[in-house]
Amino acid sequence: MRRSRLRHLGLAGLLVLGSLTTLGTLPASAADSPASPASSAPSAEEPAASAGLLEAMRRDFGLTAAEAEDRLAAERRATDLAPTAQRAAGNAFGGSWFDADAGRLTVAVTADATPATVRAVRATGAHVRTVEHSARRLDAAKTRIDRLDAPAGVSGWHVDPAANAVIVDVVSGEHADNDVQRFVDRAREAGPVTVRTVPTAPRTFAAGTVGGDPYYTGNVRCSIGFSVHGGFVTAGHCGRAGAGVSGWDRSYIGTFQGSSFPDNDYAWVSVGSGWWTVPVVLGWGTVSDQLVRGSNEAPVGASVCRSGSTTHWHCGTVLAKNETVNYSQGAVHQMTKTSVCAEGGDSGGSFISGDQAQGVTSGGWGNCSSGGQTWFQPVNEILGRYGLTLHTA
């Protein structure tokens, strides 16, 4: 990469979030008293949110700067709390999610949980809700549904802990289709299922070569996700293993070392030839360039932001995890669904919550004018699959 270009972009320029090659689609309880809210002031270990990030949350969530700071602090607490609360729930664990209105983590436990178990979960500071089905049962039902062949009228399915069911999304107007009906019937045999309607089917689509800060594989343009030691991670549909990659200036960056799509949608690219990696996500002038300090997984309900070379920086909410998305090329598993918009050329780009890497953009539906939903492949899965180490600040 030319040094003059680096001076122009600053540190984040090396993370050139390219352009999305795959955007698409879709698209009775026991309550306890709320825990006292902790101060939203960042501790010495918690760097303050940048003014740009707070401005993006004001724009996309309708929050004041103080409300955005409070939400980010509450989400950090919920993220840190979730593993402890799950261990406390044990076999009675029914899932967990961040309740944005209450500003706290909610943990579901089954009705057969012992009083001692409920007390242990509440002692962590989480709100407790009683549900019928355990997370283990719901996950097992989803796994059985994953073995079915889904027709095009079914856009995907995921476990929804708040609904305590497996949600099967059917494209509007396709409910009467015989193949869809058969799929739904077989899905209901697998376990507790709720059918919902989505506006359109998921799809991936490549972007032609246009200006910006992309990387290119042939005539396909995609976005860099996160720097790892030795390269970066991105979406699998952007290129196959062995394919060469060039940067924004068409100079050679490196090569796809591993790639998987469908079934998964992830890949990693080695870098060389004067290119190097830094722990930064590009803010595109909308927000300050964001340092990456880790990859702690944000809970359902938490805010998340996306960076991509076509539509730049947008924020939304984590809607679901471990969703199977039924693209026309085949099903992709273990995806996270968000309310963030994206468009063609944003594929592979970064999803980040605060300063914690979350995943790489896969696909979705809609656009950033009228809105939509986007899925990402979780970054920790990619790191584990290829034995990579995230480059952090």
Q: Can you walk through the features of this model?
A:
- The chain folds into 3 domains: 3-24 and 205-386, Thrombin, subunit H, CATH 2.40.10.10; 51-131, GMP Synthetase, Chain A, domain 3 (2-Layer Sandwich); 137-198, GMP Synthetase, Chain A, domain 3 (2-Layer Sandwich).
- The chain has 393 residues and is of the alpha+beta class.
- A hairpin with a 2-residue loop joins strand 7 and strand 8 (220-222).
- The radius of gyration is 21 Å and the shape is globular.
- Helix 3 packs antiparallel against helix 4.
- 22% of the residues lie in helices and 33% in strands.
- The chain is built from 7 helices and 21 strands.
- The model is unreliable at 1-44 and 205-212 (pLDDT under 50).
- Strands 16-17-18-21-20-19 form a 6-stranded antiparallel barrel.
Blueprint (SSEs and pairs):
Elements: H1 3-9, H2 51-61, H3 65-89, E1 93-99, E2 104-110, H4 115-123, E3 127-131, H5 135-146, E4 154-160, E5 165-171, H6 178-190, E6 193-198, E7 215-217, E8 220-222, E9 226-228, E10 231-234, E11 244-246, E12 252-260, E13 266-271, E14 280-281, E15 290-291, E16 303-308, E17 312-327, E18 330-338, E19 350-353, E20 356-367, E21 371-378, H7 379-386
Helix pairs in contact: 3-4
